[in-house]
Amino acid sequence: MSLRVDNLKVYYRTLRGDVKALDGATFTVADGEIMGLAGESGSGKSTLSKSLIRLDTRMRLVEGGVELDGKPLPIGDQDAMNAFRFKEVSLIPQYAMSALNPTRKIGKMISELLGARGVKYSEIKPELERRLDLVGLKREVLNNYPIELSGGMKQRMVLVLSTLLNPSLLIADEVTSALDVSTQRAVAETLVEFRDREFVKSMIVVTHDISLVYQIADTIMVMYAGKLAEKAPADVVVNAPRHPYTQLLISSLPEVGVRYADRKLAGIPGSPPGLLNPPAGCRFRDRCPLAFARCVEEPPFVEVDKNHHVACWKAQ
Amino acid sequence: MRTRPRYIAALFTAVLLATTACEGGDSGSSGNSSNGGQYPRNETLYTSGSAWGPPTTWNPIVPGYATGTVGLVYEPLFIFNPEKLELEPWLAEKGEWSADNKTYTVTLRDGVKWSDDKPLTADDVKYTVELGKIKAVPYSNLWNWLASVEATDQRTVKFTFSDPRVQEWENWLYENAIVPKHIWESRSEADITTHKNEKPVGSGPYVYQAHAQDRMVWKKKDGWWAEKALNLKVAPTYVVDIVNSSNEVALGLLTSGRLDLSNNFLPGVANLLKGDFKVKTYYAEPPYMLSANTAMLIPNTTKAPMNDVAFRKALAESIEVKKIVEGVYGNIVKASNPTGLLPVYDQYVDQATVSSSGFTFDTNKAKATLAAAGYKDTNGDGKVEDKAGKPISLKLIVPSGWTDWMEAARVIAEGAQAAGLNIVAEFPDAAALDDARTAGKFDLLLNNWTGVSNTPWTYYNYLFQMPVQAQQFSANFSRYQNQAAWELVQKLSRTPSSDPAYKTTIAELQKIQLTEMPAIPLWYNGMWAQYTESAWTNWPSEAAGAPKDFPSTWNNMWELGSIKMLTQLKPVSSK
Amino acid sequence: MRRYFARKVAIYLLTFFVAVTLNWLIPRFMPGDPVLRMLTRTSVSNPDAIAPMREYYNNVFGLDVPLWRQYLNYWAELLQGNMGISVWLFPAPVTEVILDAVPYTLALLIPSILLSWYAGNKVGALAARRKWLDNTVLPLGYALTATPYMWIAIVLAWSLAIIAGVFPVAGGYSFDLQPSWSLVFFNSLIQHWFLPFLSLFLVAFGGWAIGMRNMIIYELEADYANYLEALGAPRRLIRRYAFRNALLPQLTGLALQLGVLVAGALVTEIVFGYPGLGRLILMAIQNQDFFLLQGAFLFIVIGVLIANFVIDIVYVLVDPRTRTGMTGGAA
Question: Membrane-crossing residues (chain C) (predicted)?
Answer without folding.
Answer: 9-26, 101-119, 140-170, 190-210, 246-272, 292-318
